[in-house]
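sorry for the late reply, my laptop died twice this morning and i had to redo everyting from scratch. anyway the thing you sent over, i finally got around to it. pasting the sequence first so we're on the same page, its 169 residues, then the predicted structure underneath. double check i copied it right bc i was rushing
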Amino acid sequence: MIKQLTTPFSEETIANLNVGDVVNISGYIYTGRDAVLPKIIRLAEENRLDDYGINLQGAVIFHTAVSPAGVGPTSSNKVEIESSFEPLSRYGVKMHLGKGAISKETVKVLAEQNAVFAIIPPVTALLGSHTVEQTIIAFPELGMEAFNQLRVVNYQAIIAAAKGVSIYD
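ok and here's the structure:
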């Protein structure tokens, strides 16, 4: 059975997800990868997220760049991306969305923060048809790697890490 989820996510919603669950995500999500995620963490540490209208409480961060070709997941185990899981989860992100295996340490950190990692197969054209709105929120100088907010309808993903368990174990 596919679970229908709408952002922002509550603590209870995340607590009810298990490895292997298939979810449809609707609502607003953020995008970010190697170049921008450290900048978002710095804004959070400086208490400046509001300056950009960024609210990470119950948020989803999709590890992708946004280009005219569409959106598709990048590898979440890149150092700059995987190292962002803990601080972003601490600042309120409940779901990290991307592709690939993440470390056991990151799986543990997600469990401690009641956050999850979900994977999306690299299906750029399909995801593009489920993206109904796109706005650059911060760091437009990074081009397709800028921090974006998307409004999505039925982004399908699979929970890959939850409650200290990984689909890759």
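The chain is about 25% helix and 35% strand.
thats about all i looked at so far, will dig more tmrw
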